[in-house]
Amino acid sequence: MTEIVTETVHFPTNGETMPGFLARPAGDGPFPGVIVVQEWWGLDDHIKDVARRFAREGFVALAPDLYRGKVTSEPNEAEKLMMALNMDQASRELVKAADYLASQPYTRGRGIGAIGFCMGGGLALTLACDSPHIRAAAPFYGINPEPIDRVQNLRGPVLVIYAENDEWVNPPVTSARLREALERHGKKYEIQIYPGTQHAFFNDTRPEVYNAQAAADAWQRVLRLFRENL
């Protein structure tokens, strides 16, 4: 198994600094980079574990801390934190995170991937539209923001993951709207809806919704996407 290094880093964002969790393979690299965008819970153990998993697969993974240290496991508190987050500002901060990751000597220069879950899924797709560094994106069951009007700015393929039984997202409507926009602008994409799954099925810290088979398949698709394009 690849030896990895983890650390808390700080990078400049719009006049201030922002913390983030960084995981990378030991050694000088260079390695392909990935931005990992949190769910509404905050930069919790699950998101840090996703970053570590990428590092063990040979990527440098940066998970920006959009809540700046606030983490919760309570849905009501998570909703309050998400509603208090300025999504436009968060999008700008993620662009700065991609700038930071791209500038590191251990990050390879072909481009960076973006992945996110729930709230982070929408933000990961927005990041892919906003940053010239993002060359592949994998939004999981993304909710607002949904940058339909900006997908013409995508610079690489998109793997869009949905759960079949997702009251937050309404996959048939959301996927059809996104598919139409991607096709209209000639973008390369894959939309995968996993039968029998629920929102957040990739999160293995939530046994009530976690689906091991779907999560494993989605993970392999993400790795293939990033290895082919970064």
Individual helix count: 6
Largest sheet, spatial ordering of strands: 1-2-4-3-5-6-7-8
Shape: globular
Low-confidence stretches: none
Strand content: 25-35%
Major sheet summary line? 8 strands, mixed
Which structural class do you get from the secondary structure elements? Answer: alpha/beta
Order of helices and strands: EEEHEHHEHEEHEH
- What is the straight-line distance between the termini? 21 Å
**How much helicity do the residues have?**
25-40%
- How many strand elements? 8
Query: How large is the radius of gyration?
Result: 16 Å
Mean pLDDT: 95
Describe this structure in words.
- 47% of the residues are buried.
- Helix content is 36%, strand content 30%.
- The chain has an eight-stranded mixed sheet with strand order 1-2-4-3-5-6-7-8, sandwiched between helices.
- With 230 residues, the chain is of the alpha/beta class.
- α3 crosses α4 (119-130).
- β5 (107-117), α4 and β6 (134-140) form a beta-alpha-beta unit.
- It contains six helices and eight strands.
- The chain is globular.
Summarize this structure briefly:
With 230 residues, the protein is α/β, with parallel strands linked by helices. The chain has helices at 45-56, 75-84, 87-103, 119-130, 171-184, 212-229; strands at residues 4-13, 16-25, 31-37, 60-64, 107-117, 134-140, 158-165, 189-198.
Task: Please render the helix and strand layout as text.
Layout lengths: L3 E10 L2 E10 L5 E7 L7 H12 L3 E5 L10 H10 L2 H17 L3 E11 L1 H12 L3 E7 L17 E8 L5 H14 L4 E10 L13 H18 L1
Parallel strand pairs: 3-4, 3-5, 5-6, 6-7, 7-8
Antiparallel strand pairs: 1-2, 2-4
